Amino acid sequence: MSQSLKALYRRTFGQEPSIEPLSAAGSNRRYYRLTAPDDQTLIGVEGTNKEENRAFVEIARCFESHQLPTPRVLAVDDANLVYIQEDLGNLSLFDAIGQGRKRGGDYNDEEEQLLHATIRQLPRLQFEGVKGLDTSVLFPSERMDEQSCMFDLNYFKYMFLKLVGVEFNELKLQVDFDRLAESLANTQPQAFLYRDFQARNVMVKEGIPYFIDFQGGRLGPIYYDVASFLWQASARYSDALRQELIISYKEALQPYATIDDSTFTSKLMEFVMFRMLQVLGAYGYRGLWEKKTYFIRNIPSALSTLSQLVNDGWCDHYPYLKAVVGDIVQSTEVTRIMRECERTATIDSDLHRQPLGNHVAELLEQDVNYTKADKEPLVVDVMSFSFKKGLPEDPSGNGGGYVFDCRSTHNPGRYQEYKQLTGLDQPVIDFLEQDGELLDFLKSVYRLADFHVERFMERGFTHLMFSFGCTGGQHRSVYSAQHLAEHLHRKYGIEVRINHREQHISQVLKAQ
Questions:
Q1: Which tens digit of pLDDT belongs to each residue from 258-285?
Q2: CATH architecture of 3-86
Q3: pTM for the full model?
Q4: Which CATH class is domain 93-371?
């Protein structure tokens, strides 16, 4: 835990909080839940970029001045890149509609109401959020311009087209890219562009959606966020639900802008096309290049959407790009590369029911049987032990995993009041968290553990072990093992088996 963040909390609230590290979800920013003695909680943020921090703080303060549903910033230390904001709880919109997503997009009434409530707030954020906003603080750029559009289009070209080996004429494709970038950047009306408007960045508190992680926002066309939200690959919204949500958005938009239905639809579809090119670039890099199977599994969904846009005539203004999309979905080489990358993954059969309507869907369907082989789930063993009594045995026989030495951190066992307690007892927990050394140690452990668990899950491995040793196997190692186990169970929903060897305490956190 950052000493600067602890100092900021003390200066602002005059108290010493207990501290819980939170998942950063791929961001370089570090998040902590800060709990006061009266159980009131706040979120502490430790950034790495002063301009990004400043952007979030200034946008949040502007949003607050217009009473928009976003977290209030309560304290800032610019010099040390930390700030404290309101705690909106643990339930994201992504989690709140998770059961509907697992049902393949069959959302119930409550889930649909949350989605409607969320998208109805978007025009408020877009138009009221820029009133009085100092746009010079926006990071990394002030607006979505042609250059930023071209960056994403080139990402698609180099990270997807080049990787799948589809032949194309770069000069002809560049002509269409130039025209598309100009059209996108100059589309009206323009307002605050959230940039990352998706279900994971919406928190649900007492049934009300609140919006977070808008530090990458900029000025830009209103259609971008609508396309991002409604065509998010993992959401699997039906066409009927999308249309209903578009109607809700347009109704909420009326106080701010009047757009005829034909113009709205044509511009929205252009941004959907742009978003699919963006995500294919990302999926190509993370999936085809880095071999991360989650991203590979989403490629058919994006290709399906692009193919449908071509079939419906929305790409007719960009004839060479249209031809390239057709070549992609007809390419046997695309199918071969995806099949090779998917060998260790389970293809979700729902993806193959989407209307690719051509060679890609047929060949992927032929390969379902060998890619859908049943796999046992990953189980993680986490153990605490005393180095004096030897290293722990591996119950799986795999011989894999990590042993971490906690003896470099402050030992509560040196003090009489903690000698009869363990790392599961609150006084020891308070000592370790207020001291902070062990929390700093565990930050690196969490990053390493998350990476290893994700790779093992992707590759279908079934066992992983983490062990924490200290002098007596009583305080620091017990705290570390328990908290890593709970972190992995909470984040990944996998079965985690805990064994505090010297305390003769065992616990199983069942898979969710």
A1: 999 999 999 999 999 999 999 999 888 8
A2: 2-Layer Sandwich (3.30)
A3: 0.68
A4: alpha beta
